[in-house]
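Problem: given the chain below (167 residues), write out its structure.
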Amino acid sequence: EDVAFDEDFPEGTFVFVPPPGEEVRAPETVSHREYSLEEVAAAAPFRVFAIPDLTEGQWRLNVHFHELRERPPVPPLVTLFYHRSDGRGTLVVGQRGATDGGPGLPGIDPQPEEVVRDGVRYTVSRGERAHGEHSAVSFEREGTAIQLQSAELDVDVMLELGASLEP
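Solution.
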């Protein structure tokens, strides 16, 4: 229960030594940075799609890319964050290789529905907009698993946006 100040500690007292067989990674190896659409399209091992035009206000786009990671195992992932400049809407477009687990994030809707439009099969999860819950539209195109998510946009609007995606 005694307090001591300015004590000397043996060399190595506060040095982390990983367990045998474990590799230590520097923090910057798991951080992310923003990319341009062109940069992420060149870096991703799958085809990347973007929305050519969003109506009803001015939108900003932030592009993120997470490279393949062994530990914890995470496949390459592209995320496009569309934000309305007036703060009245967001849309997240997540993309990964279709063989890397398929589209979508589990848990949005315990009973998603299947919708077919113009020959494309979509999985639709409807959130309660009144409660701020996200709705999601998931599908595959040209080897890319894609999911659109928004708490503000209607599912029909997201289906139209999904159909409008361009490489």
